[in-house]
Amino acid sequence: MLKVGVLGAGHLGKIHLRLLNESEKYQLIGFYDPDAINAKKVSEEFGYSYFENINTLIDAVDVVDIVTPTLSHFDCAKKAIEKGRHIFIEKPITNTLEEAEKLLYLEKEFNVKGQVGHVERFNPAFTAVKDKIENPMFIETHRLAEFNPRGTDVPVVLDLMIHDIDAILSVVNSEVKNINASGVSVISNSPDIANARIEFESGCVANLTASRISLKNMRKSRFFQKDAYISVDFLEKKVEVVKMKDAPENPGDFDMILQNAEGVKKQIYFENPDIETNNAITDELETFANAIENDLVPVVSLKQGTQALKVALQIIDCFEK
User: Fold this and answer.
1) How far is residue 214's CA from residue 69's CA, in Å, rounded to a whole number?
2) Boundaries of each Gfo/Idh/MocA-like oxidoreductase N-terminal domain copy (predicted)?
């Protein structure tokens, strides 16, 4: 088992602590949180070992799980990597692109592995259809959330939209060509609503919308490609796969047939992929353990986390133009 320590015992940190404590892949050594009052409360309530010094915890483990505010990600990761520890780091990877690129350098220099917590990659609805998404040419995403003061220290792009940015980059095998975006601040000092249009060299276009002041929650993505439409509901964990193929010469009475202006006939049919119930956070943490133990590339590498951050920051830059 890999010895693991958690940095940060806030809302998400407590979830990580519980899941790591239950995992058969890890031995939870303890946690560190700069808020001593909160840390002692968590320790007393759940029985996790509280380390008063961050370096002492890092020294005692193989893997450091960083679940701290984004502004401290780089410093925490740098400390861990320079001590030869593998790191799991929550999204976004860092606060700036320069910090992320420095971590990539350190990861290679100290020969450790890192994974970024883009948890939607492990959403069972997305994993059920990811292999069916082939060369999409238009993508539309909506990620809407009811207002929650937690997370408003960063723009909605880094808080919410980055989930969809990462998912899109994982299925579009092409470089970004152009980005246009707009954002509006309603309650926070940073944008609460944002829309972005990303154009790729392949011709694919992605239209992303994110809001953290919606009246209802929604996390849906739609992928359009040659002869197929794929819809993923990340919130409800449901998928819809609609495909087309050349119509048979003698279609059945219940076959759905479409004919275009050129007279070409296509048959529409539906696929229902199996969606397996899972805990996405457990899966991302345990696949990271597997990557370490078997010397594999993590599912969401630091490089991929950096690419998602780069696009997110380019979108934010558009707000200021």
Assistant:
1) 24
2) 2-118
Distance from C-alpha of 170 to C-alpha of 313, rounded to nearest angstrom? 18
CB atoms within 10 A of CB 79: 17
Assess contact for 286 and 63: CB atoms under 8 A: no
pLDDT at 11 over 90: yes
% pLDDT > 70, the chain: 94
* Strand segments (E) across 47-137: 63-66, 86-90, 114-117
Provide the 8-state DSSP code for 157. I
Q: What is the pLDDT of residues 134-175, one digit of tens each?
A: 999 999 999 999 887 665 567 899 989 999 999 999 999 999
Asked whether residue 261 carries a pLDDT value surpassing 80, the answer given is no
| CATH number of this structure's domain 121-276+311-319, picked from the four choices 3.30.200.20, 3.10.20.90, 3.30.360.10, 2.30.30.240 | 3.30.360.10
Tell me the DSSP string of 11-30. Answer: HHHHHHHHHHHH-SSEEEEE
Q: What backbone torsions phi and psi does residue 264 show, to the nearest 5 degrees?
A: -75, 130
Most distant CA pair in the chain, distance: 75
At residue 182, the 3 state secondary structure works out as strand
